User: Which sequence fits this backbone?
């Protein structure tokens, strides 16, 4: 068959027609094929959007938050759902303490990567971990840039208190071998109108917690501050903002510290421990 | 039957004592690996060297390695078939076999790595197409199916041939004749077979490329330094083809030595594949330079630590060993034996030795890709953790299972070589006849071109990408009108009035149309309608209007009390938010305008602390700050939806679905259905017609 210009134009027109037809069919079908209503497990009990604000200027690295969290959730050994890091960004700035709970990202990489939906975002902003479903592939651990997830490598040691209750995603115990765990903002406390364990315990009042829709965050000392004032107009930051994870945890910079910096603290501690020796 | 073919059949017919010793040894290694795996099942992954910091180790290394090895076999065979290269015939089956067996070992490595293998079926019950793991499940299972078919279909004539070999045990003959599905070698059947093979060959090429790309995406879809790289797809594909080609060459050499196939696998094959291997090694070198130079030049953030560890630090030895084994030494060696005339006589040992180096190097390279990145997270690792938790040292369990994986691969290969002829008998025969006659055959049975039109697929994908979804307006919250009832207290009275739209910022934004929000959740449009808002949360859409709370302070006679401070506070979910105090003016009114982004109703308390003249007073009122946005998932979330996202689901399902359709056509229709129709009689007649077919 001879190739004519008309034939070729017709061929192109057919292609364009197919293009449009498929597009129309796509647009018409897509909203019918794909669900639009959230499943019940994604709906939080209340209509809140939880946020945490951590004032690094107040954190003195005592790790009471970690201890309270571990006690409340019976966190297995070697896991710290809220971990206090000692960070030195540069020599001149010196070290500071950085408590790192789960960031409860609005664009969570772990949720993206989970093959079975064992970790999922709830409407109150909490990234829930369902260990009834987790297959232990640890893709979420690889995905999390904050190293906020831990795995039960062996059978975790159990206590009778821990085993007394049936498993629930809202408190995430009894712990089970071969599954991933993390900080979940204590939804059980939130249901009761209480602060999460870490925020309630912090003696320095460094951890503020609250509902973003309330525009108020409260710390363990009962101080309530306006969220927008500190987090939007203040010099607040979120960890690794450049990764686009949109965390729900905000930090206030470690400026004008209200505690001895880690290196000074180490000095005074050694000095104190040397004191009794000097008395002899 | 010629002596040549007799020789080919010997591998299937005869067993020596060496065979039994070898199989026995492999079984012992396998059993040891099984023992190790049982330990792991009992105690959990604690028996491995992996911990929270380095949570993937040897198993994932093995997975990537074996998938890589599997890569080249089918691809080489398919490319050689599509281009109708004459010298391919003795080696295609060996190559295809490697693919199938390596996949059979590589796939289960991921299951061994799982913490809860008992929940494997959750992958199908709750599978989320947004997860790279599911892409792998889709890709590898499709690829395995395709490779088994592609291995099996060209073998059908040989199976029919074997079914009539009197020397074989009867169960084996029965097996072969079942598997031969009525092949008698009629011209129609031959035409169908050729069609099915070339059809499969063409579909298997993009499938093979896709599978290793998808494997690389497990890493590249993370935010880890070293993995967060856009080049990972092609980098892995080339690495896989490279190691796979080396695997093909090495297995060719082993089979040639063991079964004395010198007549079939000649120096020519080593030379040709060696040239291919050399080309791949240079390409791999290029990719390595590209990958590490771009990261090492900038030394950005956490990548600095990773690059230092790789080039000069903890992993430097392994890194340079991997690079030398993978690229430098084999490339130099192959350039020498293939390029310099005086070393031509070392072609076979040189190429085979290079291949062996490449195989080992490829494994080390996979380790170097997996482990050092996990060792170098963004936040400092190893604070308040014991040394073993931040440094990866594979345990005996992992090494045992790795050894068992290699042994398992060798065992399947050995047994399959015993069960099926490893050199295609009918194809080599045809090729030989072709060469002897030296007259090209009619191109009648060549690859059909009709059934694939590039115009069909790309417009669909392109239109999918172009379509954006319209917005839906949602109910706007009307301005709140909080009211303060009359004070009952001794001297004080409070009132709140709604403020005018006085705030500077909200006036403009209020008029913009609202985006879809609320319970209705547009999974459909999100990938390409990304919000640019800086926190992307739902309440950005509705700006609450400011609320003015006016407190009027009066004494018992009703006269206003001027210039006294009154404090305002609101009871929020978890605490009490103090707004500070305002003085009352001459008319006894103190006004507080709250412009916060607050939603819902709150009890607001106004307190007058009292002084010498006036007694303290308190008043509570419920203030409505505007309707709370309906609960929804954050708009900033991409691909976190509980349901399949069309833009991810459609391409994957279309691509792998097309593959499955192709398999069903090539195997189900062409082979199972149509070929049976051309078989002259029922299965009983097969054994009698087969020798006739052989003569034809």
Assistant:
């Amino acid at each position: 068959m001879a190739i004519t210009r008309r034939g070729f134009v017709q061929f192109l027109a057919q292609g364009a027609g197919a293009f449009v037809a498929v597009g129309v069919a796509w647009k018409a079908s897509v909203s019918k094929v794909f669900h639009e209503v959230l499943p019940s497990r994604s709906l939080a009990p209340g209509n809140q959007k939880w946020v945490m604000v951590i004032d690094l200027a107040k954190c003195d690295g005592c790790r009471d938050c970690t201890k309270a969290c571990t006690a409340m959730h019976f966190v297995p050994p070697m896991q710290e759902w809220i971990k206090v890091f000692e960070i030195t960004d540069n020599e001149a700035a010196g070290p500071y303490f950085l408590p790192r709970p789960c960031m409860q990202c609005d664009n969570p990489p772990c949720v993206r990567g989970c093959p079975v939906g064992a970790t999922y975002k709830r409407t109150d902003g909490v990234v829930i971990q369902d260990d009834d479903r987790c297959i232990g592939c640890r893709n979420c651990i690889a995905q999390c840039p904050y190293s906020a997830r831990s795995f039960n490598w062996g059978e975790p040691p159990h206590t009778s208190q821990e085993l007394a209750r049936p498993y629930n995603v809202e408190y995430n115990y009894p712990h089970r071998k071969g599954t991933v765990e993390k900080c979940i903002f204590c939804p059980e406390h939130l249901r009761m109108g209480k602060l999460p364990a870490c925020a309630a315990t912090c003696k320095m009042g460094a951890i503020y917690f609250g509902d973003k829709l309330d525009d108020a965050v409260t710390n363990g000392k009962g101080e309530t501050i306006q969220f927008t004032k500190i987090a939007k107009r203040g010099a607040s930051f979120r960890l690794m903002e450049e990764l686009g994870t949109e965390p729900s945890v905000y930090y206030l910079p470690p400026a004008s510290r209200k505690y001895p910096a880690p290196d000074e603290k180490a000095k005074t501690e050694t000095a104190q421990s040397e004191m009794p020796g000097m008395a002899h | 039957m010629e002596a040549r073919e007799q020789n080919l059949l010997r591998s299937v017919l005869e067993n020596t004592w060496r065979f039994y010793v070898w199989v026995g040894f492999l079984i012992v290694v396998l059993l040891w690996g099984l023992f190790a795996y049982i330990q792991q099942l009992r105690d959990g992954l604690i028996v491995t060297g992996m911990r929270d910091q380095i949570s993937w180790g040897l198993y994932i290394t093995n997975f990537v390695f074996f998938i890589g090895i599997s890569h080249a076999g089918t691809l080489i065979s398919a490319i050689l078939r599509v281009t109708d290269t004459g010298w391919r015939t003795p080696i295609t089956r060996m190559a295809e076999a490697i693919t199938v067996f390596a996949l059979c070992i590589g796939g289960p490595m991921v299951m061994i790595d799982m913490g809860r293998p008992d929940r494997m079926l959750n992958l199908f019950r709750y599978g989320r197409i947004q997860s790279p793991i599911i892409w792998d499940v889709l890709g590898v299972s499709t690829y395995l199916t395709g490779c088994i078919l592609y291995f099996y279909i060209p073998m059908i004539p040989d199976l029919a041939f074997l079914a009539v070999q009197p020397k074989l045990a009867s169960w084996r003959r029965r097996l072969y004749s079942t598997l031969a599905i009525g092949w008698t070698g009629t011209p129609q059947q031959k035409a169908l077979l050729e069609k099915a093979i070339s059809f499969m060959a063409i579909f298997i090429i993009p499938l093979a490329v896709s599978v290793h790309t998808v494997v690389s995406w497990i890493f590249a879809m993370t935010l880890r330094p070293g993995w967060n790289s856009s080049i990972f797809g092609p980098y892995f594909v080339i690495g896989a083809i490279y190691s796979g080609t080396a695997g093909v060459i090495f297995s060719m050499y082993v089979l040639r030595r063991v079964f004395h196939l010198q007549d079939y696998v000649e120096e020519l094959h080593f030379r040709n594949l060696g040239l291919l291997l050399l080309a791949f090694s240079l390409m791999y070198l290029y990719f390595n330079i590209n990958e590490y130079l771009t990261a090492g030049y900038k030394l950005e953030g956490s990548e600095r630590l990773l690059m230092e560890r790789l080039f000069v630090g903890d992993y430097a030895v392994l890194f340079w060993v991997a690079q030398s084994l993978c690229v430098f030494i084999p490339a130099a060696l192959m350039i020498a034996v293939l390029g310099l005339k005086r070393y031509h006589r070392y072609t076979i040992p040189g190429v085979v030795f290079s291949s062996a180096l490449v195989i080992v190097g490829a494994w080390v390279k996979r380790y170097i890709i997996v482990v050092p990145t996990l060792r170098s997270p963004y936040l400092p690792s190893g604070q308040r953790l014991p040394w073993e938790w931040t440094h990866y040292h594979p345990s005996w369990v992992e090494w045992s299972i790795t050894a068992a994986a290699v042994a398992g691969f060798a065992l399947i290969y050995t047994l399959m070589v015993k069960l099926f002829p490893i050199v295609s008998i009918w194809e080599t025969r045809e090729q030989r006849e072709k060469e002897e006659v030296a007259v090209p055959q009619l191109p009648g049975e060549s690859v059909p071109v009709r059934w694939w039109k590039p115009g069909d697929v790309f417009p669909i994908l392109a239109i999918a990408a172009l379509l954006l979804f319209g917005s839906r307006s949602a109910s706007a919250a009307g301005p709140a009108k909080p009211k303060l009832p009359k004070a009952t207290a001794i001297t004080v009275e409070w009132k709140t009035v709604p403020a005018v739209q006085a705030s500077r910022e909200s006036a403009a934004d209020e008029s913009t149309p609202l985006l879809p929000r609320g319970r209705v959740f547009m999974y459909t449009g999100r990938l390409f309608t990304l919000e640019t808002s800086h926190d992307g949360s739902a309440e950005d859409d509705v700006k609450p209007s400011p609320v003015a709370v006016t407190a009027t302070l009066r004494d018992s006679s009703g006269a206003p009390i001027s210039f006294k401070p009154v404090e305002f506070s609101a009871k929020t979910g978890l605490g009490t938010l103090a707004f500070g105090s305002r003085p009352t003016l001459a008319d006894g009114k103190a006004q507080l305008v709250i412009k916060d982004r607050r939603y819902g109703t709150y009890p607001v308390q106004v307190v007058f602390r009292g002084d010498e003249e006036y007694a303290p007073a308190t008043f509570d009122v419920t203030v409505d700050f505007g309707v709370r946005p309906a609960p929804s998932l954050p708009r900033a979330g991409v691909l976190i939806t509980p349901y399949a996202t069309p833009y991810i689901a459609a391409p994957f399902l279309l691509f792998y679905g097309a593959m499955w359709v192709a398999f069903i056509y090539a195997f189900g229709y062409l082979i199972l259905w149509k070929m049976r129709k051309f078989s002259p009689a029922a299965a009983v007649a097969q054994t009698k017609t087969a020798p006739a077919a052989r003569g034809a």
Q: What stands out?
A: Residues 5-33 of chain A form the longest helix (29 residues). The two ends of chain A are 110 Å apart (CA to CA).
